[in-house]
Specification:
Keywords: Membrane, Transmembrane, Transmembrane helix. It comes from Serinicoccus hydrothermalis. It holds the Pfam family LysM. The chain is mainly α. The protein has a domain at about 85-135: LysM domain (Membrane-bound Lytic Murein Transglycosylase D, Chain A), CATH 3.10.350.10. It is about 40% helix and about 5% strand. The chain contains four helices and two strands; from the N terminus they run ααβααβ. It has helices spanning about 1-15, 55-80, 95-105, 110-120, and strands at about 85-90, 130-135. The relative contact order is 0.10.
Length: about 140
């Protein structure tokens, strides 16, 4: 037991090693003086330039490329040749199916009727004599 108490006393009574105090530098924290009247106002430091990572550059490039491609595609679609359209005046006793079969012979009848309805904003297949119908291009 004596050896254990001697060890404890030795640990307690022995001086601790002295280390040089470290200088703590915290660049993100600084003291800001309380402004008083007549004190010059400090200007804010300019922010650092934005740095893009490789993934950010890739995302930016991809997004820009897609936008440019979509704009070009839509412009070419608008500038392309338009389908030639014609118009027909409905005569007495003529049905929309007859007009569709006569004006669009290469298109199946149901598709021809539907395309004439869409071109003229018709909700039904009924037409009136003297009505002018737009016949869409093929």
């Amino acid at each position: 037991m004596k050896s254990m108490s001697t060890a404890i006393a030795h640990d307690i009574l022995s001086p601790l090693p002295v280390t040089a105090p470290r200088e703590v530098t915290r660049r993100h924290l600084r003291l800001v003086p309380t402004p008083t009247p007549g004190m010059p106002v400090a200007r804010a430091t300019p922010a650092r330039a934005l740095r893009l990572t490789r993934r950010g550059r890739l995302a930016l490039t991809t997004t820009t490329s897609i936008v440019v491609a979509l704009v070009a595609w839509s412009m070419l679609g608008l500038l392309g040749p338009a389908d030639a359209t014609s118009s027909v005046v409905v005569e007495r006793g003529t049905t929309l199916s007859q007009i569709a079969a006569q004006e669009l012979p290469d298109v199946p009848l149901s598709q021809a009727v539907t395309s004439i309805q869409r071109a003229n904003s018709l909700s039904t297949t009924s037409v009136a004599a003297g009505q002018e119908l737009v016949i869409p291009g093929r």
